[in-house]
Design brief:
The protein has 100 residues and is mainly α. It has six helices and no strands.
Length: 100
């Protein structure tokens, strides 16, 4: 698997044992390799948003820039500390439609 997603077998070993977490650039290749998305329907809205961002291979900084928001705002949405409202919700919905 490591070669197929352009990482080392050691990284994969650590991921599989829960000793490390794949960073955002690896998620699209991992999903492609698995053939499915390990998405949990019981996740909170913030957890879903985090998964979508990672699935698309985006850092918080890049996604925030594309949404034209502060990265701290996106982090608060992902941690469930705040929810997008008004024009921010509109931007997020539009972004999600474009990226899926």
């Amino acid at each position: 698997m490591g070669q197929r997603i352009h990482t080392t077998e050691c990284c994969v070993y650590l991921w599989e044992r829960g000793k490390a977490t794949p960073t955002f650039p690896y998620w699209p290749k991992i999903v492609e390799f698995l053939g499915y998305s390990p998405y949990d329907p019981d996740w909170t809205p913030g957890e879903r948003l985090t998964w979508i961002r990672r699935y698309r291979g985006l850092s918080q900084e890049v996604m925030a820039r594309r949404l034209r928001i502060d990265p701290g705002t996106l982090a608060r949405w992902e941690h469930g500390e705040r929810e997008p409202r008004g024009r921010f919700l509109t931007r997020l919905v539009s972004f999600l439609k474009v990226t899926f």
